[in-house]
Design a protein that fits this description.
It is a single chain. By secondary structure, the protein is of the alpha/beta class. The protein has 21 helices and 12 strands. It has helices at residues 2-7, 12-44, 49-98, 101-107, 109-152, 159-200, 202-207, 211-236, 239-264, 269-311, 372-378, 402-407, 423-427, 436-445, 449-452, 472-486, 502-515, 528-531, 551-557, 559-569, 572-580; strands at residues 332-339, 349-356, 361-366, 387-392, 395-396, 409-412, 421-422, 462-463, 490-494, 520-524, 536-541, 544-549. Helix 2 (12-44) runs parallel beside helix 5 and helix 5 packs antiparallel against helix 10. The longest helix has 50 residues, at 49-98. The protein is elongated and about 115 Å long. Residues 16-298 form the ABC transmembrane type-1 domain. It is a multi-pass membrane protein.
């Protein structure tokens, strides 16, 4: 809770106003039993109708006043809690945007979604109750005790036993219920994760007829959550019966003692009625407060989970290097880089060294899972290396501000992500204020204009979330066009040509040669045909560079590269001839 309130401040003026309104409402409610006592003692007992009507009008006026004040206080409390939740949600969203890939892997998508929606909503509901009931109930309880002692004498001593018993019962129930709160949130994360997976992979699930197996997996997680929730519910269900028993016994004791004192003449009937009202108010206040207390374990667990996000610092920190001091251009160098993913047993990259200069194309090829994509992820600092340096224009990438570093890079990831909106809006991720002329130029280079021109609304045609209404090749060309819009110094293509046919692949490579100028291109590819004309080809195996050179050089010097080429292009006698036609 402390972390949350340190990040999002409540406005003191609103809190003071709310406190004043709640205080007025409490005073109004506390005056009613006193007026009732006066009506009974001086009006009903003495048969004075004028006094009865006078107090009736006064009580009606006080009730209306209290209702108006209560309405205003509820409205302000709701506004404060809603505004608080909105600010908190913005804080969480902004924090997540700063996370590196390591922090995203740590929390997981499903958990972050739950924390920024359900958890914040729970905290908001708790804050609303705190502002509405948490302020009013203690005031009413304190005032009720004072007025009860003033009007009831020894009858009010019943509260000395009733309140401690009630508090003990509440404490036991809250402590037992709190054991389940964090567990329930984790199990909700699991349900959300499975649901998210099933939505994203619905086509694969149907293709392999795994609907029944996935339903069973979700059902097991759902049942586990339900069992835990029912266990927590059984404990919390004890609250109302406990309160009802204590409330009933206390009321019976008050009326029994009050009747005795009325018979002896030590107390007036009006005072007994007023005192019983005050005692009911005290117990009702404690009961109202118990509802807030019952929400505390869940809200505390939610607040703790939100705080974990807000307190997590990104492992990617900004440097202080000024872009004005940069003396080189479009140069990428790896110096003895070793890298392991968080929690991995061993490094995925070991002692990687190479340099890419302006206007050059550096290609990376190798077996599956050998670390090719991991090399590219270090360039825009999605991760940082364990050892060694990644130099961009002669400066360690860690010295740049991440915003400056990434502004120099056009990155096309292995998994092409498109966003809901039209084609132009997606292209403008590369250039915020891009025009239709910019779109046409970028799409032409990426060979995307071919399918865009066939759509009814052209660049204003809508794309579904994730680009699900496009084919794999269309998504790849859209992602490449988005990078071309940026016109960066460095192009990073992570297996971005895999879904293209040979003709489109060749045309796209020719377009890149003509348009990238002196920018550096670093690409991961699976096909020899895609990288045959690269200035430098790095062959990666088991996280190490085992070959470095041009296509012709590697055919002679690198057995792994030659093996890949023979598999894809044929035997030795045909290799050079086939490469010349690609």
């Amino acid at each position: 809770m402390k972390t949350i309130f340190s990040k999002v401040k409540l406005k003191s003026r609103q809190i003071i106003l709310l406190f004043a309104l709640v205080l007025l409402s409490a005073i109004g409610q506390m005056l009613l039993p006193s007026f009732l006592a006066q009506m009974i003692s001086h009006g009903v007992a003495e048969g004075e109708n004028r006094v009865i009507w006078m107090y009736a009008i006064i009580m009606a006026g006080v009730t209306v006043f209290s209702c108006i004040i209560s309405f205003l206080s509820v409205k302000i409390a709701s506004y404060i809690s809603t505004d608080f939740a909105a600010q908190l949600r913005n804080q969480v969203f902004s924090k997540v945007q700063e996370f590196s890939a390591a922090e995203m892997d740590k929390f997981g998508t499903a958990s972050l979604v739950t924390r920024s929606t359900s958890d914040i909503t729970n905290v908001q509901n708790f804050l609303t109750l705190m502002l509405r009931i948490g302020l009013l109930a203690p005031m009413m309880a304190a005032a009720g005790l004072i007025f009860s002692a003033a009007t009831g004498g020894e009858v009010s001593s019943v509260l000395l036993i009733a309140i401690p018993v009630l508090l003990i019962a509440l404490t036991v129930i809250v402590v037992l219920a709190s054991r389940y709160s964090i567990s329930l949130r984790k199990k909700l994360d699991q349900i959300n994760r499975l649901f998210l997976e099933s939505l994203e992979g619905v086509r694969v699930i149907r293709a392999f007829n795994r609907q029944k197996a996935e339903s069973e997996r979700f059902e097991n997680a759902n049942r586990d959550y339900a069992v835990t929730a029912m266990a927590a519910g059984r404990i919390t269900s004890l609250l109302m019966p406990a309160i009802s028993v204590i409330f009933g016994v206390t009321t019976a004791a008050v009326l029994g003692m009050g009747a005795y004192y009325v018979n002896t003449g030590a107390m007036e009937v009006g005072s007994l009625v007023a005192n019983s009202q005050y005692i009911s108010m005290v117990l009702t206040s404690v009961m109202m407060l118990s509802l807030v207390i019952m929400m505390f374990p869940t809200s505390y667990a939610c607040a703790k989970r939100i705080s974990e996000v807000l307190e997590t610092e990104s492992s990617i920190r900004d440097g202080k290097f000024s872009m004005k001091e940069k003396t080189m251009h479009a140069t990428v160098e790896f110096r003895h880089v070793t890298f392991a993913y968080p929690g991995a047993d061993e490094p995925i990259l070991k002692d990687i060294s190479f340099i890419s200069r302006p206007g050059e194309v550096t290609a990376i090829i190798g077996g599956t899972g050998r670390g090719k994509s991991s090399i590219l992820k270090l360039i825009p600092r999605l991760y940082d290396p364990m050892f060694g340096e990644v130099l961009i224009d002669g400066i360690n990438a860690k010295e740049y501000r991440t915003e400056d570093l990434r502004s120099m890079i056009g990155y096309v990831p292995q998994k092409n992500v498109l966003f809901s909106g039209n084609i132009g809006e997606n292209l403008n991720f590369g250039k915020e204020n891009g025009t239709e002329e910019d779109w046409e130029q970028a799409a032409g280079i990426a060979c995307a204009d071919e399918f865009i021109s066939k759509r009814k609304q052209g660049y204003y045609d809508m794309i579904a979330q994730g680009g699900t209404n496009l084919s794999g090749g269309q998504r790849q060309r859209m992602a490449i066009a988005r990078a071309m819009m940026k016109k960066p110094e460095i192009y990073v293509f992570d297996d971005s040509f895999s879904a293209l046919d040979m003709k489109t692949d060749r045309q796209l490579r020719e377009n890149l040669k003509k348009n990238i100028g002196d920018a550096t291109v670093i690409m991961v590819a699976q096909r020899i045909s895609t990288i045959v004309d690269a200035d430098r080809i790095l062959v990666v195996d088991d996280g190490q560079i085992v070959g470095n050179g041009t296509h012709e050089e590697l055919l002679k010097s690198c057995s792994l590269y030659r093996e890949i080429a023979e598999i894809q292009l044929g035997k030795e006698a045909d290799l050079n001839e086939k490469c010349n036609h690609i």
